[in-house]
Structures are given as C-alpha cells and as structure tokens.
Amino acid sequence: MIHLMIEIVVVWLMAILMGMPLFASMGLAGLAFVVFSGLSPSIVPQKMAQAMNSFPLVAAPLFILMGNLLGAAKLTDRIVRFATSLVGSLRGGYAHASILSSMIFAGMVGSAVADAAGTGAVEVRAMKKAGYRPETAAAISSAAATIGPIIPPSLPMVIYGVSADASIGRLFLAGVIPGVLMGLSLMTLVAIIAPRQGLPRHSFGGLCDVWLALKESIWALLTPVILLGGMFSGLVTPTEAAAVACLWALFLGFVVYRTLSVKDLPAILLNTAETTGIVAVLVMVAGALGWCMSISRIPQTLAPAIVAAIHQPVVFLLVSNVILLAVGCFMEALAAMLILIPILVPAAISFGIDPVQFGLIMIFNLILGTIHPPIGVVLFVMARIAEVTYEQISRAILPWLVPLLIVLLAITVWPPLTLWLPALLMNK
Amino acid sequence: MRRVVAGAFDRTSAFICCALVVALLAVVSLGALTRSFGEPLIWTDELSRFLMVWLAVFGWIVATRKRIHVRIRFFQDRLPARAHQATEIVIQFAMTLFGVLVTVYSVGLIGKNHDLDATSLPISMAWMYAPMVLGGAITALQGASELIQALRPPPPSPPAAIEEAALE
Fold it and tell me: Pick from B28, B101, B135: which is nearest to A58 by CB?
C-alpha cells in the first residue's frame, strides 16, 4: 500500500502545482487510494464529514465571526489611537504604534490577513500622513500583522490542534511569549532605523491624552481579557470562549460604540461562512487523505526513517524550518499545514519534540510565507491599502523579515519560550 | 434562465449560510450558559457538531460558486495560452469527477446511516452526511460549467486580432 500511496502523492503534488484547487486534488488522491486498494470509496465522504464532526473545530467559524464583527465595528481606530498615545512620542512613533496595535488586535482576531485588513488601513493612513514612505508604512504593517495568528486566539492553532491532536488551550498559551517577542523585535528594528531614516515622532499629549484614549478604547481592550480569561480560568472551553467573545463583539458594536447596524450583519455572516467554507473543506479532505496515509503506513514508515537519517532533534527542527519556509513561498498557510502535519508531526514526536512547540514553529514559518514573495497574501492586501506596487512592498518587507526570523530561531532552539507558559498555567 | 436559477440558488445558499452561523453561535452560547448555571443541556454539543458539518458544506458551496477556493496559480499563469487552456480543461474535468464521486458515495452513506440515531438528538445520523450530497453535486455542476467554458477556444489576443484584420 505504501508504494501505491507514494505514486498517488506524486501525481497529487503535480496536480497541485498545475493549479488544481487543493481540496479537489486532495479529495481525488484519497479516492484514488481507496479505489486502487480495494476499499469502499464511501470511506472518503464519510471521513470528510467526520473531520467536521468535532466540537473543538466549532471554535474556528466563531473566531472568524468574532474577527469580522470587531472589524466591522471599527474598533481598530480606537485601538490605534490608544497605541499612538502610548508610544507615538518615540522616534518612529507611528511605526511603534502600528506594531503595538497589531499586538493588541492579535488578541481579538486569529489571522494575519484579518489583522492586516483590520488595523492596516488605519495604521498605513496615519504613517503616510506623518511622512513615511508608503512602501515602508505598508511593510511595517505587514510584518506586524503576522503577530495576529501567533498571539491567541488563532485560527491556524485551532486547525493544527484538531489535526495534530494537540491541546488548543496549550497552543494558545504557547503563542503568547513568541507573539510578544515578535512585537518587541519589530519595535527594536524601528528604534534602530528611525534615526537613520528620520522617521518622525508624534508629540506627546500628556497622561491626560493617554487616559482619554484608554477611556475610549477600554471596552475594546477588554475583549482579549474576556476571551483568554474565560478560557484559562476553566470557566469555558476555547469553543465556548469564542461564542462568548462573539456576543461581546455584538454588545460592543450595537450597544457600547453603536458602530454596527442590523444591515451590516448579512455581509458579516456570509463572509464568515465563506471563510469557514474555504478552510473547512480543506480540513475535510485532509481528514480523508490523512486516514489514507495512516492506512498506507506512510507516517509510520517515514518518521523512523527521518529519525535515523537526522539523529538530532535540533537539526530536524532546523531542516523543518527550511522546508516550511520553502513551502510557505508557494502554498497557502492552512493548506500547507494540513498537508504536512501527517508527515512532520509524527517525526517530531519521535524526536521527543512537544507537538505544541512544533505546532508553533510550523505556524510561525507558514505565516512568514504570507509576507514574503512570491505569494504573500498579506503583502497583496497591504499593497492595495497603501497604494503601492507588489514589487515595491516585496522589496520594502525584506529588512522586517530579519527580526521575525531571529524570533523563529529562538523558539526553535529554546523550547521554554513556547512551553513554559502552558506548563505554568495548565500543569503540564 | 440559467442565470436566474443560479442567482436564486446563490441567494438561497447565502441565506442558509447566515442562518447556520447564527444557529451555531446560539447553540454554543446556550451550552455555555446552561453549564454555567449548573444545568447543562446534553444536546448542545452534538447539535453544534451537526451544524458545523452543514456550515462547512454550505461554505464550501458558496466558495465553489464564487471560485475562491485555494489553488496555486503561480505556475499555471506562466504557461503559454494553449498549455494554460489544456491544464484548465484537465483541472475542471477533475473537479467534476470529484464532485460526482462525492455525490454518488454520499448517497450510499445516507442509505447506510438512516436507521442509526444520534446520541443525544432524536434525529438520524444520515443528517450528518446529507449535505455532502449537495456539496458534491454543486462542485460537479460548477466544474462541468467551467469545463465547458475552458473547452471554448480562447479569444484572440489584441495583436493577433490586429494582424488578422490587416491581412484581410
């Protein structure tokens, strides 16, 4: 069976590169395997439906809905204003504020694209107005947007947790320190380049200005507190926390800030369903194909072979980083994750690497793919917002990849950066 | 006529999607609320999972209709026009085949599960697989429609058209 599966995987990869929609190519690969193995083809639709029959996965559409509600409620303006009042008076203040806003917004949305589309427009507008070059402003906002799926909540973490059978709560906690480090490393680079490029500073409005900005945004700033507090106090599960956060977002939009109207809801709900559909169908076919791979014993054969060939866990992690960064150049992050989990996670476990640490490394690598050419989804979004060409932003982003790669290296070689907080708060 | 039917279908599926998202939020919230009062409802978890399957499939359908599924066009877009068309024909044929196979085998699944009851809900497990038939069928129809489009000869590029006009 293993030879049959390898042949099918080769054809499947060719189909992907040829441009076939990923879900169809994965589904057909699964169907080809069961047909040629003499198994019942109804296994494939059965496994597809069963992949969705998961309560933790219900968190995914709810987190998407929460991000859409908060985005439509225009909370980003208040958050950016608050961040600017705090760090705007530093040299390169708007860049610092952009990064800080993304860190705060990351506690409310779970994807880099949502972060970019949510805070990006406000941040880029402010930076351009302050005299930043548009491509520099776009590059800073793009780099900051990658914090979105690392600081909880995180859509990729929900998908990884369900697919790799890892605790979503532990994954969320594991992302906190790397997310903060990402923000700090980007701010360090701003501090280095700001004097050289003559980036302006925003005049400090005094503590009164900070207080006013805090008062305006306090309800929005409470969102991550409610979400994460509920989850980690044990009051609610991650899925229930997502639902509570959606209700909170509705309360903010309709009652507190009155920035949402009933007319906005159909578009928000449909957008949520569309995004869910794109992600969910990949999870469905990955569930079927993952089952086929398991039956063909590919992971069971590959994992010991990788361990025998590489020996050292750190070398395995570094090799995985290179593979994931390369894959991230050409493939959408969630899709790449679903394809690679059945191959890389068993090997990581064989090396004694915690699947939570490996999950963070995997997500980090693939999210970096969204801000580097040739297929940087966040770059596409931000180029449109900043009205620059894709080539301009592709060049401008390069220096901003350096601090993020340093953080990636740090979480790769030093597991406590990811595992200390979950161990502290979840007794494991 | 075809456009009217497609438009009506798109509006209906959009409405169902919205209703499913609202229902999912309501059911999970109800589960959390009743549990916090120490009187948990036993059926909310299972119902939310059923709704998740339906939402996933209807989201899949909407994404298929809008042609926004993930695909890597990087290499295909660099092919010459004829090779691009040939790959598109193969891709859409494969999409159609996948849709047909999912539809056919999902019908079989419904038959096998219709007398199997859900754990906490008074409904058959066949409801878990029922949306798969629709998801497969729409994928097949969309694939077939795009296959027909791909089989049409590509419109002449402007320089070629000018050359032809000059020759005439």
Answer: B28
Q: How far apart are the first and last CA of chain B?
A: 38
B interface mutation test: which of A248, A270, A332 has the most B CBs within 10 A? A270
Q: Does A48 touch chain B (CB under 8 A)?
A: yes
User: Residue B124: beta bridge partners?
Assistant: B117
DSSP 8-state symbol, A184:
H
Residue A77 CA from chain centroid, whole number: 22
CB of A190 closer than 8 Å to CB of A182: no
CA distance A278 to A360: 22
Identify all chain A residues contacting B33, using CB atoms and an 8 Å cutoff: none
How open is the CA angle B123-B129-B135, to the nearest 5 degrees?
135
Q: What is the ipTM for the molecules in this complex? A: 0.89
Q: Identify the pLDDT of residue A308.
A: 83
- Report CA Rg, chain A: 22
* Listed residue (B42, B149, B163, B90) closest to A25, CA to CA: B90
Rounded Cα gap, residues B114 and A112, in angstroms: 42
Contact list, B17 vs chain A (CB under 8 Å): 269-270, 273-274, 277
Residue A222 makes CB contacts below 8 A (sequence gap 6+) with: A248
Residues 314-373 of A with CB under 8 A from B: 330-332, 334-335
Place of tokens 């903060």: A180
C-alpha span between B123 and B125 (Å, rounded): 7
State the distance between the two ends of chain A, measured CA to CA, in whole angstroms: 38
Is the pTM higher than 0.80? The answer reads yes
Please give the residue that has the higher pLDDT: either B161 or A344. A344
Q: Do B29 and A244 touch (CB under 8 A)?
A: yes
Dihedral, CA of residue A42, residue A48, residue A53 and residue A56, to nearest 10 = 160
Using DSSP's 3-state secondary structure scheme, residue A301 falls into helix
User: Per the structure block, which two tokens stand in for A85?
Assistant: 């009042």
CA A83 to chain centre: 22
Residue with tokens 């490394």: A361
Note the pLDDT tens digit of each residue in B103-141: 999 999 999 998 999 988 999 999 999 999 999 999 999
Tell me the CA distances in angstroms from A256 to A63, A79, A354, one per residue in order.
21, 15, 42
CB contact under 8 A, B71 and A243: no
